[in-house]
Write a structure and sequence with these properties.
single chain; alpha/beta; nine-stranded mixed beta sheet; 14 helices; 31% helix; binds 6-O-phosphono-beta-D-glucopyranose
Amino acid sequence: MKKSDPHILVIFGASGDLTKRKLIPALYELHTQDLLPEDFAVLGVSRTELSDLNFREKMTEFLPKEPQFRNDIDAFLEHLHYQPISTSDSTGYPVLKSRLEQLGKELSITENYIFYLSTPPNLYQIIPKNLAEVGLNDSSNGFKRLIIEKPFGTDLNSAKELNRNLLNYFKEDQIYRIDHYLGKETVQNMLVTRFSNGIFEPIWNHNFIHHIEIISAETLGVEDRGGYYDHSGALRDMVQNHLMQLVGMVAMEPPVVIEADAIRNEILKVFQSLRQLQKEEVAKHVIRGQYTQSKIGKDVVKGYREEPGVDPQSRTETFLAMKFYIDNFRWAGVPFYIRTGKKLPARVTEVVIHFKNTPHHLFGNQDNNEPVNNQLVLRIQPDEGILLKIGMKVPGAGFRVQTVNMDFHYSELSDIYLPSAYGRLLLDCMQGDATLFARGDSVEKAWQYVQPILDAWQNNPDIPIYGYPAGSWGPEVVDGLMEEGLWRYPCKNLNHDGEYCEL
Ligand code: BG6
């Protein structure tokens, strides 16, 4: 792979959690894979007073601890530097600029800069403006790119305003809106499964597909993020971004070429074709839930309202299930289902394609055979892989049919390195490839789609929020939403399923 051009990666919010938990480990991973340029530096920026050495020390928290990695980690840490400034105050930016120039001279790096905004979202409006005021948006002497973390707005209007504001200072092709789901290898593999296999593409439509289920379940609760989460909820936190991007990947038309705009145009078209829910339909098609205290084994598990930072009367949803349609030629009449939630029995994300049954149930009279429901399960995480459920004759007399699994697990590719989502996305940005980043127009479209749900919940407190015991699969009423059969209850191993599974 071609190495990226030498550059400095400036991380705003460098003393925050995301930097040490995700970004630095992802950069270390790129370093060990020899994917970083020779001339490369990270400049951590935040208000906290730290020296380069203090910063390096802090950044080791989530790096491997085993002695055999020591030398490699030391070599990596040499790339890390730190500059304290108050990011909300424009007076710090000339200081930042001269530090970048000085580092550039010392390390022979031209003025190629990536600015990663890993800060509270209220600074997304301010930092780009301050950068622009000192000319740090000007690409004439080297690239200037801006990576923006989620949440990208909290509703349609704020997302539009944020886009408008960013475009005052940076051009669209300089802006990289990160959605870490797009960085997952298995999410990208959906395009390869669909568009490189002659057996799948012809049947990937309403003629052969009965319905599609997308689930993203987590065992964790809100942990120490109650303050943020209580103003967000599952719809904003997971659906508007990560799960809508999955819908885009499953449902899009083949792009003309594998290039950023070609792919992003197709994702946008999917969002444009979503059948907009009317406010009065929300209660019927979208079910929200919130986990309540329960006992799992011997442990009493807190309910959401008891979590730190959460309003004891909170009506924020920690679970959501919804049914929707994509009104276009490919998907006319095919129901799509989404389920996501915290404190569910397993951590698992997958897309399940349920195919239509054969037109005639030939083996129906034999030993109570049920029709076979062919399913293609695209497992995003964990136990990443693909599973096809097909009917097979049980050996012996008669024609007894049993559903069996054909499965592929990424773990079988032992010699292949699976990059982390952040590693992949950072590398793509370093190479100027925006394919796996969300474009401004599609982010707005996704907000436009979820806005009536937000409005209905806000304006109509009669729409119920159902409690579900922590550790269960969500509110019972969710069964009634699925009109096309049964939900799949996945387990942590791809080829296990059923209501009960290993934890
Ligand atoms: C984040 C959400 O964007 O994605 C979290 O804010 C959620 O609430 C996380 O837990 C899920 O990501 P992953 O990669 O663990 O599925």
